[in-house]
Amino acid sequence: MKQRVVLDDKAIDRTLTRIAHEILENNKGTQNLVLLGIRTRGVYLAERIQSKIAKIEGITVPTGVLDVTQYRDDVTDRVSADVQAFQIDADLNGKHVVIVDDVLYTGRTVRASLDAILDHVRPSRISLATLVDRGHRELPIRADFIGKNIPTALSEEIIVMLDEIDEKTQVYIK
Ligand code: 5GP
Ligand code: MG
């Protein structure tokens, strides 16, 4: 199987630095800012952005975890919609929530994330950061902060590796 590296660890680091700056510019600082990473790799990306923001602004913004498996439209046996799909030590009401994920594809995961959040809280604003946008949207959803647009064939797959859980940090196309 042919593999093509599109982002190495240095490129990913620079990309996340840029995204951190873009979020800060867009939000005019860290006020009311909250990051929510989508399980699994979105969580590590959110934490990396959190530490970039801390380096730039000297402020650690609240960062939590979103698990949207129960909110997907292909899940028929929902345990209970009362199970809060996100974990964060902050009140999200009135906040600017930035959802962070590794790859944006059809948009269904993001739609599920919006449901998961809005079932429980009322943020003033929700935006989306993704490391890779690979295209092929099936819903009217777009990212506000994009690491890299990688137009893909349906047969291709983007492999995101982060050294928090993988043996190295890189993005490649398979
Ligand atoms: P969507 O819901 O937009 O179709 O897919 C996005 C979700 O599925 C993300 O959470 C992402 O992790 C995963 N995903 C979809 N396509 C790919 C891909 O090509 N590579 C990786 N690593 N994840 C993908
Ligand atoms: Mg994912």
Automatic annotation (TrEMBL):
- Entry EC number(s): 2.4.2.9
Q: What class of enzyme is it?
A: transferase
Q: Name one Pfam family in it.
A: Pribosyltran
Which reaction is the catalytic activity of this chain?
UMP + diphosphate = 5-phospho-alpha-D-ribose 1-diphosphate + uracil
- Entry keyword Phosphoprotein: no
Keywords (A to Z) from UniProt: Glycosyltransferase, RNA-binding, Transcription, Transcription regulation, Transcription termination, Transferase
Name one molecular function that GO assigns to this entry: uracil phosphoribosyltransferase activity
Q: Which residues form the Phosphoribosyltransferase domain?
A: 7-146
GO BP annotations listed = DNA-templated transcription termination
Q: Which SUPFAM superfamilies match?
A: PRTase-like (SSF53271)
Q: Where is this motif: PRPP-binding?
A: 97-109
According to the record's subunit comment, the protein's assembly and interactions are: Homodimer and homohexamer; in equilibrium.
So what does this one do?
A: Regulates transcriptional attenuation of the pyrimidine nucleotide (pyr) operon by binding in a uridine-dependent manner to specific sites on pyr mRNA. This disrupts an antiterminator hairpin in the RNA and favors formation of a downstream transcription terminator, leading to a reduced expression of downstream genes.
Family, as annotated = Belongs to the purine/pyrimidine phosphoribosyltransferase family. PyrR subfamily.
Q: What is this protein called?
A: Bifunctional protein PyrR
Q: Which organism is it from?
A: Macrococcus hajekii
Gene of origin? pyrR
